[in-house]
Amino acid sequence: MLTNILSFFRDNDKLLLHSLLYTTTITLSALVISRYFKSRSWSKLKASPFYKPMEGKVCIITGANSGIGYETAKELAKLKATVVLGCRSMIRGQEALEKLKKEVQDGQIVLMELNLASFDSIKNFAKNVMKQYPKIHVLINNAGVSVPIKEKLTTKEGYEVHFGINHVGHFLLTNLLIERIQKSSTDMEQTKVVIVGSSLMDRGTIDFDNLNGEKGFVQKGHSNPAYCNSKLMNYYFGAELYLKYADKGVDVSVVCPGWCYTNLFRHADIKFYQKVMIFPIAMMYMRSANQGAQSVVHCAISPNQTKHFPPIFRDFAPYIPKHEYNDEVSKKLWDVTAKLTSIQ
């Protein structure tokens, strides 16, 4: 019996191999074709009626030395905007600056140091920006971190790193610049604040007794709970900022750039076999950093014409998250964070 089975495989090995190659080819071709048509919805920036030259416009981007921040800076520089790169590492920032100037030779790009894990650095950055630029037209809060919660990293002021950088740091920076941004608007054109969020906000929670991770975090699957919480805070921060300033000339958007191939999740503990398993999904849904940046830039140059609220967007359109907006949570989070940052 065993001899017959082995003989069958020896005699039919070519047929089996051809069948395997045929199936693999068909599967990969289907994935490539499906991705092609799906990716077209991620790269529609140049088709926007608002895709126009931005000479004289000052745009600030946090975390601009790599990933979505870098690509956002490049796209805005192509429109001839003055782009300020806010970077924690001046070495990596300088490398990004030199690379950008080679790619966009006529762009006006400036590098400034910004460490969102330090209130002093944030205040110095805001002071230097306002000293150099009488007007600020666009602020893009892009910088973010996602590190294993077991490392228990904190900011200079002692805040849990995801809460401190992704939410508190950007809250402080925005409020230091918001008056200048507001005064830079005109009756004909609003200024913009864009907050880079994530659909992972739907996995987040806001526990006012555990904002700083005092009680620890419950890890479910591979999602970083502290990161997810911070993205939910970004959502509420954007919503409250919109309510406070939309009628004062400042348009606010929270934008999910989609699942992008960047170094944000470089610390994620994903085994090799798991990477193999998610490869087909990644082929369908993972975007390049530039494709993710397209939605960010679109929000930076396009008005919220439909007054969509909460003002969250994805793929060039209003986005409805699974999380149900709570006005009380929104206001309380603002008040708590304002107290932490001494913002009036």
Automatic annotation (TrEMBL):
Q: Which residues cross the membrane?
A: 20-37
Q: A Pfam family in this protein? A: adh_short
Q: Name the UniProt key words of this record, in alphabetical order.
A: Membrane, Oxidoreductase, Transmembrane, Transmembrane helix
Which Gene Ontology terms cover its molecular function?
A: oxidoreductase activity
Q: Which SUPFAM superfamilies match?
A: NAD(P)-binding Rossmann-fold domains
Matching entries from InterPro entries are given as: NAD(P)-bd_dom_sf, SDR_fam
Q: Which domain of life is it from?
A: Eukaryota
Name assigned to this protein: Retinol dehydrogenase 12-like isoform X5
Q: Which organism was this protein described from?
A: Diaphorina citri
Gene name per UniProt: LOC103515112
